[in-house]
């Protein structure tokens, strides 16, 4: 779940949602706060072990992991110094599973933000491949949950024709995400799409606050659960927890929830 600022989300409905979820693991993106800036009930909710990776740039990015049981190990960032303290990647080891929270840069065509996104993608795919290989050697599965900021297919974006030149739906971005899902390359599976292969509209997970995008379901599917094939094969259902009304939203994103039989 991209919370679009955890302090703001906590005032709008995040805590009741967390209290009601049956999830074993919750991955948060765009936390935009350090732990010391959060109230105790938000920073360390009862019943959860919480790990944070705040961004070095104050008020930006930030990811977190909440797990019902204490992780065996927690790692911040991946093997590139530029992104070590960027608040964009955090992973934890649980029994038989490495789970990660990812906030891939959003980008903007023709700006330094797009350059940053492209550098991140170039560095992150080799890391993913290595992570999958290391996990396989240890008999582990991998699940990377987060805001990937790319709509992979036309079915993942309502107004795809109008966005072909915009960051998030550029041909090179979509091709890169295709490599993540290529069995001969990244070797990961798109859990939600595998369970809903014929759905033509989403299920979307982000809607602009502008206009009536949410009411008209004019959204993007940019939040993914990306799993190694062995784990993906155990997914039995997945859905986007879309709010009933615009007024009940506590972020511009919605939680993407999957259930696995282990």
Automatic annotation (TrEMBL):
Coiled coil residues, start to end: none
Manner of cofactor binding, per the entry note: Probably binds two magnesium or manganese ions per subunit.
Site residues by UniProt (Important for catalytic activity): 223
Record-marked site positions (Interaction with DNA substrate): 253
Enzyme class, first EC level, given as a word: hydrolase
Family: Belongs to the DNA repair enzymes AP/ExoA family.
PANTHER family xref list: EXODEOXYRIBONUCLEASE III
Stated name of the protein: Exodeoxyribonuclease III
């Amino acid at each position: 779940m991209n919370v679009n600022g955890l302090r703001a989300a906590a005032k709008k409905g995040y805590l009741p949602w967390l209290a009601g979820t049956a999830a074993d693991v919750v991955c948060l993106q765009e936390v935009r706060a350090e732990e010391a800036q959060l109230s105790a009930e938000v920073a360390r909710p009862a019943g959860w072990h919480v790990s944070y990776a705040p961004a070095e740039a104050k008020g930006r990015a930030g990811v977190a992991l909440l797990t019902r049981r204490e992780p065996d190990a927690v790692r911040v960032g991946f093997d590139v110094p530029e992104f070590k303290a960027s608040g964009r990647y955090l992973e934890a080891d649980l029994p038989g599973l490495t789970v990660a929270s990812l906030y891939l840069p959003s980008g903007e065509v023709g700006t330094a933000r797009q350059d940053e996104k492209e550098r991140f993608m170039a560095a992150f795919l080799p890391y993913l491949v290595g992570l999958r290989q290391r996990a396989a050697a240890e008999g582990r599965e991998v699940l990377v949950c987060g805001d990937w900021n790319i709509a992979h297919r036309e079915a993942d974006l309502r107004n795809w024709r109008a966005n072909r030149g915009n960051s998030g739906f550029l041909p090179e971005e979509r091709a890169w995400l295709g490599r993540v899902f290529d069995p001969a390359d990244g070797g990961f599976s798109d859990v939600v799409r595998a369970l809903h292969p014929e759905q033509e509209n989403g299920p979307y997970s982000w809607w602009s606050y502008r206009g009536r995008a949410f009411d008209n379901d004019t959204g993007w599917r940019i939040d993914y659960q990306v799993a190694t094939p062995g784990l993906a094969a155990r997914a039995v259902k997945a859905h986007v927890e879309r709010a009933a009304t615009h007024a009940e939203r506590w972020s511009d994103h919605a939680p993407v929830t999957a259930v696995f039989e282990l």
